[in-house]
Amino acid sequence: MLAASFASGRTALPEAARFTREVLTAWAAVPILSEAERLTEDLVSETSDVPFDIVWVHQGDSLQIEVREKETQTVPVAPPSQAVTDWGVSFDGALRTRWARLRLPGGTGMARTADDWAGRRTSQGPGWLGFLADASDLLAGTLDPDMVPALIAQIVVPRLATWCAVYTPGSDGGPPELAYLWHADEFQIDDLRGELAEVTIPSAENLTPMPIQLGDWQSLAFPLVARGRSLGVMCLGRSGRFPDDIAQLAEDLGRRAALAMDNARLYAQQADANRALQRSLLPPGTPAETPGLDYSVVYEPAGENNEVGGDFYDLFSTGEGTWRFAIGDVCGTGPQAAAVTGLARHTLRLLAREGYDVAAVVSRLNRAILEEGERARFLTLLHGEIRRTAGGLDLSLISAGHPEALRLRPSGAVEAVVTSQSLLGVFPEAEFTADHVHLAPGDVLLGVTDGVTERRSGDRLLDDDGGLAGLLAECADLSARAVAERIRRAVQDFAIEPSADDLAILVLRAV
């Protein structure tokens, strides 16, 4: 059995499909991979907007997928569109499980043993080089540190051993801890876990395979060491002695597995650091009370948390009935862009609260960016001040090379309301002049980054021929939150491919 948990949302389906590919590759079931992917898509598409689990079970001559979720509504259940040998739905309290079974080609109903695979090795010879290559590809494609031990065990059993236990370093320097255990006979896993609990597992600091005394099993512990770092131990067991060639093969696989574990560990650390840095570049919060102003912000970084983006936004109070806002885009990604993003957001807040007007703030920010020298990055920015009046909202704003800000009237009319001026970080002598805009009750101001306007589908951009203005015109009489969500969804639906650029949306509505 191999299981994984998934959050709801637009990334759920591609992540579930990737998990299915990993499972079937590990189980050498690639001939039915396309059927399994379609079945996964079929079952996942029926889930509600709640987190769910996917469980794959190897049943000898077939594979069974189970999609488990907490039932949120009672709906008719239809059979999968993909041809399956059997399917059904079961309930356990509030947990609903939809399951289906795919037959393996040439299945006999009997699970292969380690000795079966050893026999195949002597007859196939070089075929094991393909096994190692496939195992390396599978492990290299997994960047989740918690998934790697499970994949190691699934790759090993039953090819090299009857069971496999993967241990990782214990917390605070304690003994190794069992991360994943797999047995060719699933019903023996619990008993084996109890036996292993009574055994002393050698540390990964021993750089050569070591025997383990475990009942009638012939067991070997292989260290998982990569780049001089001890990452755990891979323990294998079988009913007969380990042939020298099988032990050498397992030792080779252990080195590849350790490298995959270290790569996943480093990737996870970098991703965590990037997420922390990204959070630090966003405002700590937005005003809780904004009488006369209805607002909404949307921010979605692109990619898989492996890069820090350059988009940012802010909205903060500068006094009773006055606020400042900003939405900007730093050229590039990564630490260099993050440095300019942090400089911009903190400078805007500091100078605004010191009483500088909008033009003075933008001019000083331009000089501050240029003073960064080689670390400087171009920055487009829409920055403004909002002042509540008896007849709505008065805005003073500057667009420094930023996509144009649009005003939506309750009648559905849309117009650009700000003059584009020099982007920041280019000309030291640049001067800026604020435009003044009035929002009457019901009027909406929309500001976006180029992740919206330059969303691409083939040769067409979302904002071609006034596409963004057309979308906004359909949002008359909607709340600020509804407008922001309508634009975000339109960007998502504009193309099949995930967006390669960060996205930020700021909506201000006078009430």
From TrEMBL:
Molecular functions (GO terms): phosphatase activity
Gene3D superfamilies: 3.30.450.40, PPM-type phosphatase domain
Domain of life: Bacteria
UniProt protein name: PPM-type phosphatase domain-containing protein
Domain PPM-type phosphatase span(s) in chain numbering: 293-510
Keywords, alphabetical: Hydrolase
UniProt keyword Hydrolase present: yes
Organism listed in the record: Sphaerisporangium melleum
InterPro entries, per database record: Bact_Sigma-Reg, GAF, GAF-like_dom_sf, PPM-type-like_dom_sf, PPM-type_phosphatase-like_dom
